[in-house]
Amino acid sequence: MRVSVGVLDRLMGIVSELVLTRNQLLEVAGVAGDESVKASVQNLSSVTSDLQDAVMRVRMQPVDRLFATLPRLVRDLSIELGKKIEVVTQGAETELDRQVIELIRAPLTHIIRNAADHGVEPAAERLAAGKPETGVIRVKASYDGGQITLEVKDDGRGLDLEKIRTRAVAQGIATPEALARMCDADIFQFVLLPGFSTASHVTAVSGRGVGMDVVRANIQSIGGTISLNSRSGKGTTVTLRIPLTLAIAPALILSCGDARFAIPQMGVVEVVGVGAGFGHQIKFIHDAPVLQLREETLPLVLLGEALELTENARSKDGFAIVLRVGGLRFGLLVDSISDVQEIVIEPLVRPLARIGVFLGQTILGDGGVVLILDPAAIAERMSVRNMSEPQPAPIQTMAPVREKTRLVLVRAGSGSLKALPLSLVMRIEEIASERLTRRDDAHFLLLQEGRLLPVVPAARDMRVAQGNYPLLIIASAGQVVALLVEEIVDVVEEALFFQDSGVDPGVIGTVSVDDRIVDILDVGHFIGSVDPRAITRGSNLRPRILLVDDRVFFRDLLAPVLLAAGYDVTSAASGREALDLVEHGLRAHVVVTDIDMPEMDGYALARALRERPGNADLPIVALVAKPSASVIDAAARCGVRAVVGKFDRRGLTDAVDRLLENVSASDDSIERRVMAEIAA
Predict the structure, then answer these.
(1) How far apart are CA 425 and CA 430, in angstroms?
(2) Would residue 299 be called left, alpha or beta, if left means φ above 0 and alpha means ψ between -120 and 50 degrees?
(3) Does the model's pTM come out above 0.90?
(4) Cβ(326)–Cβ(226) under 8 Å?
(5) pLDDT in tens, 529-554
(6) Facing residues of 259 across strands?
């Protein structure tokens, strides 16, 4: 059955209006304070989210539609240019909103034309350089958080750095002295500037007055980013990062001065407090503000200064939103973060569009209209560059335990600060104490979305008074519990060295974090106090999962899901690292691996694992963007027992459960199990 595109667009418009109405009702219900109204609105919110997800899935189409035209395009270019060129596509099953596919078709075509004309050499030149006479253009699509990454890579001559320098000086873009201080990556970005071209003459293929600046403008107009990388004699890589959809997106609502803005959440890495009362301060290097975040120094943009909203922006404290734009990470200092909402992105009116730092506009739940910030445009306007090139983390081959653990520091009761691993926290919410109903001396109940959620204070001497309290939602062994705390202090990354065993039954032990004494909470104690049977369920099933994925986003997404399902998890960032862990004694009951990885993909890893003595029957689960018959067949030939979509968390846990039906438990204590979760 075919559905008209107009009907789908109309349905998407209706859902967008419903999301706006939902946000307004949530705002009204929060002000009214009526619990029955809140419960009804929460149910409506849940149904709206389900409907939105269903409509989005209907609009999603595989990028195979985009890739299908590329072989003919490259074949025609090959004939026209007199070169031997072939195109190889990867990730055709990756899905993208239909509207986005149409909008990136022209930019992708232009990039491939450039690669064929300027990048790939003639056959004689390639043979003289020791290359195959046929040049290859690789186009790869993959998921990266809430975005799609499109990578176009050729094996041609690469960008001519000296020619770019010469043209930049000739056009007055930079002085020779400034170029001498710039790294190659920054010089490559000149290619994206308006009117900049290294083509010596105009051809019918490229150099026709439509440069890479138009490609960048088109990509940025849909909230995407573009970056270039090149090696002389090896080729050029153009990377596009594009949102999955243009219609509805989660966003942070922030304030600067008297104005409110929204910023898309897909580019947000984390948010940290800056100034008095927080552990981070603004520093200045050559009069440029920077933020020292753990081991990394980030350039900092003061939003009030960038938008000329406040006269004395540099003296203000607030919150630094750490953003990622392509390969660039920087902080954006704002006064406050007021909310996280799903917003409907509306186009800008023409006068605002000319300002160049806004993606669009939206209407919030309280009826206010706010502008949506464009992180890429802000970074460009403020000339933000990386402080230093990030260094790859060394692979730990001698032990499966990670060196450092990300902890949530909280304040609860008297005495030391408390902490628990961030990987065990499903989400953090804030609730009013009036919503809590006391169950007994040590527990409360909270009605949330029509269900009762057990709430446990994180300290025995914690007194619950009138006001708002943070809730840390945790799950393990099939039981969901909310930990009630007085304050979220910070998120830190620290190597854990226990210096004292816990006397309190709710504490595993004591560690030192930034010269502060911190008690590590025993998650198993709190879950067991709510449902003692959960301990039995957990201790009867603690197989270890080896999770292999080259992207941090998916490791951080899936590890907590497997932990909450009752498994211990060890993560590896590559197939080579996974093999090293196995060689040095790691015993995994199941391996969950991404198929699409550099150097050693999931197929090769599966074959290598099963060839090792004792691993012939090792269950292996493959993660793919979208399971298809060809992928399942190829995986089965490599010994993979199950294939699951990357975002299908229920399917992943069901597959692991099915493969481990006959695996029995170790009789580790609850304390050892929680320690294993911390280590993993």
Answers:
(1) 14
(2) beta
(3) no
(4) yes
(5) 776 654 444 444 467 899 998 877 67
(6) 256
